[in-house]
Design goal:
single chain; alpha/beta
Length: 148
């Protein structure tokens, strides 16, 4: 599976779905609040609180192949938004944190539905490890899991 995706896992399976990149240390608390909001929506996010430049943080997140980088500066912190950048360089502009949490959860549900049904069938017993990894990644969508 990793070879098939060249390390760029689908959003619903990525270990870290979004990383918050504060532009300065004084925005780390606001970054933690964004991570908490995304976590409540069932998304896996973390904050990069290192004292590095934003360019360096973006580069490191690109190398880690994190699907979404959320840049948080003074304007975004004041407005309750984040500037969204997707893996590969597409800048999507500012998005409200609540809207982003809802959109991310919907995307995880939509992306994860078909592979979960395929993987978790009784016929897929040889891939039990892969199946357990997919189930662990899908904790955000318990209502979508197939019943055996």
């Amino acid at each position: 599976m990793i070879e098939h995706y060249a390390g760029v896992l689908p959003f619903w399976l990525a270990p870290v779905q979004a990383i918050v990149l504060p532009v300065a240390d004084r925005f780390n608390e606001a970054g933690e609040a964004v991570v908490a909001a995304l976590g409540q929506a069932g998304l896996r996010a973390e904050v990069d609180a290192r004292s590095e430049s934003v360019g360096r943080k973006i580069r490191d997140a690109e190398l880690r192949k994190v699907p979404y980088m959320l840049v948080l500066g003074e304007r975004e912190a004041a407005e309750g938004t984040v500037s969204v950048r997707s893996h590969g360089g597409a800048d999507r502009g500012p998005v409200a944190v609540g809207e982003l949490a809802g959109a991310g959860r919907a995307r995880a549900c939509a992306d994860g539905l078909k592979p979960l049904r395929l993987c978790c069938s009784a016929r897929h017993a040889p891939g039990a490890l892969l199946c357990s990894i997919m189930l662990a990644a899908a904790r955000t969508t318990p209502s979508r899991l197939p019943t055996a």
